[in-house]
Amino acid sequence: MTLPKDKNPFDFFAEWYEEAANKEPFDHTAMALATSDANGLPNVRMVLLKGWGPDGFVFYSNEESTKGGELAGNPQAALCFHWKQLGRQVRIRGAVDVISAEESDAYYASRDRGSRIGAWASKQSRPLEGRFALEKEVARYAAKFGVGTIDRPDYWHGYRVVPQSIEFWQHRDHRLHDRVTYVPDQDGNWAGEWLYP
Q1: Which residues sit opposite 83 in a β-bridge?
Q2: What does the domain layout of the chain look like in residue ranges?
Q3: pLDDT digits (tens, 9 = 90+) for 103-136
Q4: Under 8 Å between Cβ of 16 and 83
Protein backbone atom coordinates (compact mmCIF):
# COMPACT_ATOMS: atom_id res chain seq x y z
CA MET A 1 0.00 0.00 0.00
CA THR A 2 1.34 3.41 -0.86
CA LEU A 3 0.30 6.34 1.24
CA PRO A 4 -2.44 8.23 -0.64
CA LYS A 5 -1.77 11.55 1.05
CA ASP A 6 -3.98 13.47 -1.34
CA LYS A 7 -6.79 10.92 -1.36
CA ASN A 8 -10.07 11.49 0.43
CA PRO A 9 -10.23 8.87 3.24
CA PHE A 10 -13.87 8.20 2.40
CA ASP A 11 -12.88 7.15 -1.13
CA PHE A 12 -10.15 4.99 0.41
CA PHE A 13 -12.71 3.44 2.81
CA ALA A 14 -15.10 2.78 -0.10
CA GLU A 15 -12.42 0.74 -1.91
CA TRP A 16 -11.61 -1.37 1.15
CA TYR A 17 -15.29 -1.75 2.10
CA GLU A 18 -16.17 -3.03 -1.37
CA GLU A 19 -13.30 -5.53 -1.27
CA ALA A 20 -14.42 -6.70 2.17
CA ALA A 21 -17.98 -7.14 0.87
CA ASN A 22 -16.64 -9.56 -1.74
CA LYS A 23 -14.07 -11.42 0.36
CA GLU A 24 -15.08 -11.52 4.01
CA PRO A 25 -16.88 -14.83 4.72
CA PHE A 26 -19.17 -13.59 7.49
CA ASP A 27 -20.22 -9.95 7.66
CA HIS A 28 -18.13 -7.07 6.39
CA THR A 29 -20.47 -4.57 8.10
CA ALA A 30 -19.53 -5.78 11.61
CA MET A 31 -17.59 -3.22 13.63
CA ALA A 32 -16.51 -2.87 17.23
CA LEU A 33 -18.08 0.15 18.95
CA ALA A 34 -16.31 1.56 22.01
CA THR A 35 -18.02 3.96 24.42
CA SER A 36 -17.27 4.88 28.03
CA ASP A 37 -19.32 5.07 31.19
CA ALA A 38 -19.62 7.95 33.68
CA ASN A 39 -16.34 6.88 35.33
CA GLY A 40 -14.49 6.80 32.02
CA LEU A 41 -14.38 2.98 31.98
CA PRO A 42 -14.41 1.80 28.34
CA ASN A 43 -17.05 -0.55 27.01
CA VAL A 44 -16.86 -2.31 23.64
CA ARG A 45 -19.25 -4.48 21.63
CA MET A 46 -19.98 -5.42 18.03
CA VAL A 47 -22.62 -3.56 16.04
CA LEU A 48 -23.45 -3.40 12.32
CA LEU A 49 -22.72 -0.49 10.01
CA LYS A 50 -25.98 0.57 8.35
CA GLY A 51 -24.88 3.63 6.42
CA TRP A 52 -21.85 5.81 5.89
CA GLY A 53 -20.49 8.78 4.00
CA PRO A 54 -18.49 11.96 4.56
CA ASP A 55 -20.97 12.95 7.30
CA GLY A 56 -20.22 9.82 9.33
CA PHE A 57 -20.84 6.15 10.08
CA VAL A 58 -24.33 5.03 11.18
CA PHE A 59 -25.56 2.23 13.43
CA TYR A 60 -28.90 1.70 15.21
CA SER A 61 -29.72 0.84 18.80
CA ASN A 62 -31.98 1.26 21.80
CA GLU A 63 -31.21 4.49 23.66
CA GLU A 64 -32.19 2.75 26.92
CA SER A 65 -29.40 0.19 26.45
CA THR A 66 -26.00 0.46 28.09
CA LYS A 67 -24.49 1.93 24.94
CA GLY A 68 -27.37 4.40 24.62
CA GLY A 69 -26.91 5.60 28.19
CA GLU A 70 -23.17 5.93 27.75
CA LEU A 71 -23.57 7.88 24.51
CA ALA A 72 -26.09 10.19 26.20
CA GLY A 73 -23.56 10.94 28.94
CA ASN A 74 -20.49 11.13 26.69
CA PRO A 75 -21.39 11.43 22.99
CA GLN A 76 -18.03 10.26 21.68
CA ALA A 77 -17.07 6.84 20.36
CA ALA A 78 -14.53 4.76 18.50
CA LEU A 79 -15.19 2.19 15.79
CA CYS A 80 -12.97 -0.61 14.52
CA PHE A 81 -13.47 -2.77 11.43
CA HIS A 82 -11.31 -5.90 11.24
CA TRP A 83 -11.36 -7.71 7.90
CA LYS A 84 -9.26 -10.77 8.69
CA GLN A 85 -9.30 -12.29 5.21
CA LEU A 86 -7.82 -9.09 3.80
CA GLY A 87 -5.45 -8.46 6.72
CA ARG A 88 -6.95 -5.01 7.17
CA GLN A 89 -8.29 -2.83 9.94
CA VAL A 90 -9.95 0.60 9.93
CA ARG A 91 -10.25 2.66 13.12
CA ILE A 92 -12.52 5.70 13.44
CA ARG A 93 -12.87 8.11 16.36
CA GLY A 94 -15.29 11.00 16.73
CA ALA A 95 -18.32 12.68 18.19
CA VAL A 96 -21.70 10.96 18.03
CA ASP A 97 -24.99 12.50 16.89
CA VAL A 98 -28.49 11.05 16.99
CA ILE A 99 -29.79 10.90 13.43
CA SER A 100 -33.13 12.34 12.36
CA ALA A 101 -36.41 10.59 13.15
CA GLU A 102 -37.08 10.39 9.41
CA GLU A 103 -33.84 8.47 8.77
CA SER A 104 -34.53 6.15 11.69
CA ASP A 105 -38.10 5.55 10.49
CA ALA A 106 -36.90 4.71 6.98
CA TYR A 107 -34.33 2.20 8.19
CA TYR A 108 -36.69 0.66 10.76
CA ALA A 109 -39.32 0.12 8.06
CA SER A 110 -36.74 -1.75 5.95
CA ARG A 111 -36.06 -4.33 8.69
CA ASP A 112 -37.78 -7.70 8.63
CA ARG A 113 -40.91 -8.03 10.74
CA GLY A 114 -39.24 -10.18 13.40
CA SER A 115 -36.52 -7.59 13.96
CA ARG A 116 -39.11 -4.82 14.29
CA ILE A 117 -41.01 -6.84 16.90
CA GLY A 118 -37.70 -7.60 18.62
CA ALA A 119 -37.01 -3.88 19.04
CA TRP A 120 -40.22 -3.65 21.09
CA ALA A 121 -39.78 -6.93 22.98
CA SER A 122 -36.16 -6.54 24.13
CA LYS A 123 -35.43 -4.34 27.13
CA GLN A 124 -31.86 -4.20 25.93
CA SER A 125 -29.05 -4.52 28.51
CA ARG A 126 -31.44 -5.00 31.44
CA PRO A 127 -31.62 -8.19 33.56
CA LEU A 128 -33.59 -11.07 32.02
CA GLU A 129 -35.18 -13.87 34.06
CA GLY A 130 -34.51 -16.39 31.30
CA ARG A 131 -35.01 -17.08 27.61
CA PHE A 132 -38.69 -17.87 28.13
CA ALA A 133 -39.33 -14.34 29.44
CA LEU A 134 -37.93 -12.88 26.20
CA GLU A 135 -39.94 -15.28 24.04
CA LYS A 136 -43.06 -14.33 26.01
CA GLU A 137 -42.46 -10.64 25.24
CA VAL A 138 -41.92 -11.42 21.56
CA ALA A 139 -45.24 -13.34 21.49
CA ARG A 140 -47.01 -10.49 23.28
CA TYR A 141 -45.87 -7.87 20.76
CA ALA A 142 -46.47 -10.19 17.81
CA ALA A 143 -50.07 -10.54 18.99
CA LYS A 144 -50.39 -6.81 19.67
CA PHE A 145 -49.28 -5.80 16.18
CA GLY A 146 -50.84 -8.75 14.34
CA VAL A 147 -50.43 -8.19 10.62
CA GLY A 148 -50.62 -4.41 10.95
CA THR A 149 -47.95 -1.73 10.83
CA ILE A 150 -45.21 -1.85 13.45
CA ASP A 151 -44.14 1.71 14.21
CA ARG A 152 -40.62 2.43 15.42
CA PRO A 153 -40.34 2.70 19.23
CA ASP A 154 -39.40 6.21 20.35
CA TYR A 155 -36.34 4.85 22.15
CA TRP A 156 -34.94 3.08 19.07
CA HIS A 157 -32.98 5.17 16.59
CA GLY A 158 -29.76 5.69 14.71
CA TYR A 159 -26.46 7.14 15.84
CA ARG A 160 -23.86 8.71 13.57
CA VAL A 161 -20.16 8.71 14.48
CA VAL A 162 -18.75 11.87 12.92
CA PRO A 163 -15.07 11.08 12.35
CA GLN A 164 -12.28 13.24 13.75
CA SER A 165 -9.67 10.69 12.69
CA ILE A 166 -9.63 7.64 10.41
CA GLU A 167 -6.77 5.15 10.47
CA PHE A 168 -6.10 2.42 7.90
CA TRP A 169 -3.94 -0.59 8.79
CA GLN A 170 -2.65 -3.22 6.38
CA HIS A 171 -0.96 -6.44 7.53
CA ARG A 172 2.66 -6.99 6.47
CA ASP A 173 5.09 -9.75 7.34
CA HIS A 174 7.29 -9.56 10.45
CA ARG A 175 4.81 -7.14 12.05
CA LEU A 176 6.06 -4.34 9.80
CA HIS A 177 2.51 -3.32 9.00
CA ASP A 178 1.43 -0.28 7.02
CA ARG A 179 -0.50 2.37 8.96
CA VAL A 180 -1.82 5.67 7.69
CA THR A 181 -4.00 8.08 9.63
CA TYR A 182 -6.13 10.91 8.32
CA VAL A 183 -7.26 13.98 10.25
CA PRO A 184 -9.14 17.02 8.95
CA ASP A 185 -7.76 20.55 9.12
CA GLN A 186 -9.79 23.58 10.22
CA ASP A 187 -11.30 23.83 6.73
CA GLY A 188 -12.38 20.20 6.74
CA ASN A 189 -9.72 19.03 4.31
CA TRP A 190 -8.32 15.61 5.18
CA ALA A 191 -4.60 14.85 5.10
CA GLY A 192 -2.84 11.54 5.68
CA GLU A 193 0.47 10.58 7.22
CA TRP A 194 2.34 7.36 7.84
CA LEU A 195 2.61 5.95 11.35
CA TYR A 196 5.16 3.46 12.62
CA PRO A 197 3.46 0.05 12.98
Answers
A1: 88
A2: 9-111+155-195
A3: 999 999 999 999 999 999 999 999 999 999 999 9
A4: yes
CATH fit for domain 9-111+155-195, picks 3.90.105.10, 1.25.40.10, 3.30.300.30, 2.30.110.10: 2.30.110.10
Q: How far apart are CA 166 and CA 84, in angstroms?
A: 18
3-state helix, strand, coil in the chain (%, to 5): 30, 35, 30
Instruction: Please answer whether residues 95 and 101 qualify as being in contact, where contact means their C-beta atoms are separated by less than 8 angstroms.
Output: no
140 is known as an active-site residue: no
Q: Does pTM top 0.85 for this prediction? A: yes
Please tell me which residue in 93, 116, 175, 179 is annotated as part of the active site: 175
Q: What is the pLDDT of residue 5?
A: 63
- Distance set, CA 79 to CA 33, 128, 160, 165 (Å): 5, 28, 11, 11
pLDDT per position as a tens digit, 2-58: 556 667 899 999 999 999 999 998 899 999 999 999 999 999 999 999 999 999 999
CA distance 190 to 164: 10
